[in-house]
Every structure is written in C-alpha cells, then in structure tokens.
Amino acid sequence: MPRSVNHVASRARRKKILKLTRGYFGCRRNVWTVAKNTWEKGLTYAYRDRKNKKRNFRSLWIQRINAAARQEGLSYSQLMGLIHKAGIEINRKVLADLALNNPAAFKAVVDKVKA
Asked: What count of other Cβ atoms lies within 10 Å of the Cβ of residue 82?
C-alpha cells in the first residue's frame, strides 16, 4: 500500500507562513526554514515591544511635561510633587497633551498647584 501523505495540509501550512513573511529580505521571505524561524523570532519581538511601547510613551510624556514645567520655573519632580500634594488627579498622558496642545490650560494647572 502506498504511503499516504497529506500534501494539501502541509503545503497550506507552509504557504500561510510564507505569506506572512512576504516583505522580508532575501531568503527570509521564501526559504521555508529560514522564513519560519524569522517569523517566530518576530513574534517574540512583537510581544517584547508591546511592553516597551508603554515605557517609551511614558518617557516621552515626562520629557514634554519637564520642558513645559521649566518654562513655568519648576522642574518635573517639583511639579509632580506639588500636583500630588494639591490632590489633583491628572495623569502624565493628559498633562503632556495639555503642555503640547494647550499651554494656557497647563499654565492654569501650574498656577493652581503653586497657590
């Protein structure tokens, strides 16, 4: 009896991975073993960088708040300390957005915590 091999399923499995690696460079796009390894490694990078993205955005917000706070005569740490002491519940994302897009509102927040 001849050996039964399910070529339809195995080819579909390979084509699915090769379709996902379509934009890669050189052998990474069309050699099965290289493409599969590259794609799997890409998944680990994607998982790691979803965490790093949050870290990077928090760092960006802090830099923006610090720059705006220094124009008002405070450092970032002094401003955040005053905000917490005043009991103002505003997160860094919103504060950075105010500093960038609405300087008057940011100045109002700074004046409120200074008083």
From this structure: 18
Q: How many CA atoms lie within 13 A of 86 on its CB side?
A: 16
Between CA 90 and CA 11 the distance in angstroms is 54
Give the separation between CA 68 and CA 9, rounded to whole angstroms: 59
Confidence (pLDDT) at 107: 96
What does the domain layout of the chain look like in residue ranges?
Answer: 27-114
**Domain 27-114: assigned CATH number:** 1.10.1900.20
Collapsed DSSP state (helix, strand, coil) of residue 55: helix
pLDDT tens digit sequence for 33-82: 999 999 999 999 999 999 999 999 999 999 999 999 999 999 999 999 99
Cβ density class 24-58: b for 16+ within 10 Å, e for less:
beeebeeeeeebbebbeeeeeeeeeeeeeeeeeee
**Identity of the residue numbered 65:** I
